[in-house]
Amino acid sequence: MNTPISRVGLVAKHNLDASAGVLAEVAGWLEARGVEPVFETHTAALVGLPPGRPTQAREDLPHACDLIVILGGDGTLIGMAGLIAQAGTTVPILGVNFGSLGFLTEIQLDELYDSLESVLDGEAQIDKRMMLRARTLREGAIFADRLVVNDVVITKAALSRIIDLSVVIGDELVMRVRADGLIVATPTGSSAYNLAAGGPIVHPAVDALLLTPIAPHMLTNRPVVLPGSSEVRVVPVMNGGEEVYVTFDGQSGHPLQADDVIEITRAERPLRLVKASKRTYFDVLRQKLKWGAR
Fold it and tell me: Which helix (H) or strand (E) holds 61?
């Protein structure tokens, strides 16, 4: 990473009181190195920032900073990643884990300053993670347009019966799925809901999309790994009475109507994550999931 860093955005999970002291220390550390800390508005209130210090609304940070430091869990990072993507920028994120799992916020608190130093020195390793653009088309017009890190999930309501989904790639009908739902995931999202639903773990460097049925009615409906360039369309086959929903990274969503189409493609820009220098992807799997343990 060779872009000079002059302004660093500081974002904490909402109501994460435990981060207040760390944020104040990080701000002082940055200022001592000639770098301006810019607090996200709610994070500034958490710290008790005096009036007159620079703050920005969360959605404005991608245009105001050269780097964004997240203190929280994966959900906080995913929300910020969506805002960066919507802003059309590629500002890197340094995620510090204050959550319980931390696949994306993989940098531990005791690694924070070494990681920041490597970014300021231009020596940090930056992971590029594929994102997805998901559009809901309703009556030929775009009803919803979202950018996601992990997955797009089409699923039934809690008390609904099995739903029927038609999956088209390009112009070719690939499969008809009768199941509780369908997950379309990135390699980053392969270790999230996809994994819980029986899908494969896919290394984030692999250029791929994953289709994983949720509790399929037929055992022949198995997960499918597709080229990352694939254009996927999912069409719910609704015969009346079904309640079908689409969710984006588990953070937003909406109900679907008959004849709605969900189009999913690779996003124009990847998410850029500052990588922990002492830890590989497989180290993270072993530590977080006990993957490969006997």
Answer: helix 61-64
Domains and their CATH numbers in the chain: 7-129+270-289 (3.40.50.10330), 132-266 (2.60.200.30)
d(CA 100, CA 70): 15
CA distance 280 to 52: 41
> From start to end of the chain, where are the E strands?
7-12, 36-40, 55-56, 67-72, 93-97, 126-129, 132-138, 141-148, 151-156, 163-169, 172-179, 181-185, 208-214, 224-227, 232-236, 244-248, 252-255, 261-266, 271-274
- pTM attached to this predicted model: 0.92
Q: What is the mean pLDDT of each run of 10 residues along the chain (294 residues)?
A: 86 90 95 96 89 88 96 94 95 88 84 94 94 96 97 88 92 92 97 95 96 90 94 91 92 94 97 87 79 66
Cα dihedral value 71, 74, 79, 84, nearest 10: 80
Examine the residue annotation and report whether 74 is marked as an active-site residue of this protein.
yes
Of the residues 74, 127, 151, 260, which is catalytic?
A: 74
Residue 85 has phi, psi (to 5 degrees) of -65, -45
